[in-house]
Automatic annotation (TrEMBL):
GO terms for cellular component: TAT protein transport complex. The keyword Transmembrane applies. This is Sec-independent protein translocase protein TatA. InterPro entries: TatA/B/E, TatA/E. Keywords: Cell membrane, Membrane, Protein transport, Translocation, Transmembrane, Transmembrane helix, Transport. Part of the twin-arginine translocation (Tat) system that transports large folded proteins containing a characteristic twin-arginine motif in their signal peptide across membranes. TatA could form the protein-conducting channel of the Tat system. It comes from the Bacteria. Belongs to the TatA/E family. The keyword Membrane applies. The Tat system comprises two distinct complexes: a TatABC complex, containing multiple copies of TatA, TatB and TatC subunits, and a separate TatA complex, containing only TatA subunits. Substrates initially bind to the TatABC complex, which probably triggers association of the separate TatA complex to form the active translocon. One of its GO terms (biological process) is protein transport by the Tat complex. Residues 46-86 are annotated as: Disordered.
Amino acid sequence: MGFTSWWHWAIVAIVLLILFGSKKLPDAARGLGQSLRIFKSEVKEMQKDDKADETAASTDAPQRELPPADNATPNTSSNADTKKSA
């Protein structure tokens, strides 16, 4: 059911007119519009700041490359050496 019917919206409009009056309703709508405009601009500004922070973090701290592991070094100890020391 919900608010898809036109008469639901008509009832809401009548109730708003009764509560706020015909003089205060345009001012309330104008104030709501200004508030939404400010909210949207602040959200966009926050998103822009987040993107700037991400790019600054990635350029400020470059990743270091570690040297490759050197597995080719020969093992100089033999089994005989380890048995003698034990």
